[in-house]
Amino acid sequence: MHPGLRTGWFVLAALIATQLMLAAWHGVLRAGAGPLSADRVMGQADFIKNAPNLVDAIGMNAPAGVAIDVANGHVLVADSQNNRVMGWFSAHSFAAGGAADLVIGQADFYSGQINRTGGSPSANSLATPRGVAFDSAGNLYVGDRSGTIFKIAQDRQIFVFATLEPSVAAYHLAFGIDSTLYVSGPTTSSCDNVYAIDRDGATTVFYHGLGRPQGLAVDIAGSVYVAASLGGRRGVVRISTAGEAQLVIAGSSIVGFTFIPGGNALVATLNPHPSPASAVYHVALGIEGWRAF
Question: Residue 59 falls within a domain, yes or no?
Answer without folding.
Answer: yes
